[in-house]
Design the sequence.
């Protein structure tokens, strides 16, 4: 009987202990879950630190980028106009020459002889003409005294006219001989820099158009850069040529220096294969940095947008269907705004959909959601450029 009481007491103690354990475990689960729920509610009110810039209203220059080739305004291949032998070379390779400078001298002896012969023939025919003219004068006097008939005077007049034509022909022959003689002095038709000299004293030169040039003279200042322009920008380029404030910036591939030029020429036809039109811009080249045949990167200012809203391109969020930015509202919370990018170049973009002066989130936008409170680390009053 005592053993039964002891067993009953032990069972009751075990039951009480089990109940206490159950309620204590349940209480611990509830207390563990409560702080987690509170943290979840608090995350919606946490403040995100961001960097902002102000959308700025300013005149924005619309620019086009292209690749072009530097070319000379004037490049001349110097060739001989007569068959002769070079007697002297008056220039050096890479020398700058002026128009009229003597480049080469050729063997002029045959042409000097021809000129002398033509001059001698002219002198002879002039003497004959003078004799015929004197005879005409005498015949007129004899006719006046009734010693000769009028036919004799007419015959003398014919001799004078014929001999005058011969003299005129001789004078033309002398002029032709002088022209041929002048071909033996090859002069520079334009100013520029000489290239490789392909002949030396004693070289035989020919007047053939396919013959190798004696030398090439290239004008180095100013120079032009030819580049293709898309057809859609043709109208802008035509208007740009009429404006005094339009310009073209050229940069060499090594980005060592920039050159400012002016749009000069637009071709009269669009290439149907590429959909582009050839355009030329002219540049001063006093420092000889732009070399004909070299490649250059071009930036053409074709239009100026007045009071455009400009923001940094880094502030734009590219979505699947649209582009957007985060702006800071008066309540200090983030607002998502859909924008349309109308122009972009470098670090700037022209957009519609927000107003000038809006605070646009630049850094930290990846942590934002609409309605989240933000703290501005710094506010830049001008967009990056």
Sequence:
């Amino acid at each position: 009987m005592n053993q039964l009481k002891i067993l009953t007491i032990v069972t009751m103690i075990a039951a009480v202990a089990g109940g206490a354990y159950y309620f204590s475990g349940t209480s611990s689960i509830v207390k563990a879950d409560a702080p987690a729920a509170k943290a979840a509610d608090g995350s919606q009110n946490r403040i995100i630190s961001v960097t902002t810039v102000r959308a700025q209203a300013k005149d924005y220059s619309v620019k086009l980028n292209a690749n072009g080739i530097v070319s000379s305004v004037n490049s001349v291949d110097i060739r001989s106009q007569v068959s002769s032998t070079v007697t002297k070379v008056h220039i050096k390779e890479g020398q700058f020459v002026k128009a009229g400078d003597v480049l080469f001298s050729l063997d002029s002896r045959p042409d000097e002889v021809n000129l002398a012969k033509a001059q001698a023939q002219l002198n002879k025919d002039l003497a004959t003409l003078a004799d015929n003219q004197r005879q005409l004068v005498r015949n007129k006097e004899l006719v006046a005294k009734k010693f000769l008939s009028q036919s004799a005077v007419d015959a003398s007049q014919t001799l004078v006219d014929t001999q005058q034509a011969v003299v005129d022909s001789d004078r033309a022959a002398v002029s032709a001989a002088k022209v041929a003689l002048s071909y033996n002095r090859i002069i520079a038709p334009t100013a520029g820099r000489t290239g490789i000299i392909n002949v030396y004293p004693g070289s035989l030169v020919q007047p053939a158009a396919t013959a190798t040039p004696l030398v090439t003279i290239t004008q180095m200042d100013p120079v032009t850069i030819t580049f293709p322009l898309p057809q859609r920008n043709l109208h802008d380029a035509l208007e740009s040529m009429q404006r005094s404030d339009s310009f073209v910036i050229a940069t060499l591939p090594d980005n060592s220096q920039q050159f400012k030029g002016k749009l000069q020429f637009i071709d009269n036809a669009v290439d149907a294969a590429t959909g582009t039109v050839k355009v030329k811009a002219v540049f001063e080249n006093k420092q000889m940095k732009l070399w004909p045949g070299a490649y250059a990167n071009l930036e053409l200012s074709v239009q100026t947008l007045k009071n455009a809203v400009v923001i940094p391109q880094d502030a734009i969020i590219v979505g699947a269907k649209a582009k957007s930015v985060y702006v800071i509202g008066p309540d200090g919370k983030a607002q998502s705004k859909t924008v349309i990018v109308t122009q972009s170049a470098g670090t700037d973009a022209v957009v519609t959909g927000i107003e000038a002066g809006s605070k646009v989130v630049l850094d930290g936008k990846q942590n934002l959601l609409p309605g989240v409170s933000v703290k501005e680390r710094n506010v830049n009053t001008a967009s990056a450029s």
Summary: DSSP finds four helices and 21 strands in the chain. The chain has four domains: 48-60+306-380, 65-73+218-305, 78-106+188-217, 108-183. The chain has a mean pLDDT of 84.
